[in-house]
Amino acid sequence: MVIALTEGVRFLQSLGDAHPTLMLTGKPLRDQGLVVDELFRLGWKDEVLWELLARPLPTPLRKDVSAVLAKRLSDALVSPVPGPRRAWEDAREAPPAPRRHVAGADPVIRRAYECQGDRGMCGVPVAAEGEVCPRCARMSEPAR
Hints:
Strand content: under 5%
Structural class: mainly alpha
Distance between the termini: 45 Å
Radius of gyration: 17 Å
């Protein structure tokens, strides 16, 4: 299978190089690379996507890594593009152009946590390790 080296594919390859557990190959790499390309087109910054995708995987991992990354990317597609966090900037300045990922860049990665509800498959971002999202907090635990 020949995979076009789009910006999204290169981004995912760099992510896999930095985090071998997140390495994608073949059809998942091609398909998710197209999704990353679309997110870049919509204005998502590579640092934000890197942080989103590099979060720790659910434990225990009950799905393929490509499925976890696909879910994170599909959630990003339906989410609004994160805006700038610097409110003190002059409002008259034009918004910065979206930065594109450059293979070999060294982004800063902040620690992020995911809800471990739904038997580790929820994945909604939460503030601290061990917290659950509001939806999972309302779900009753199955009898053991």
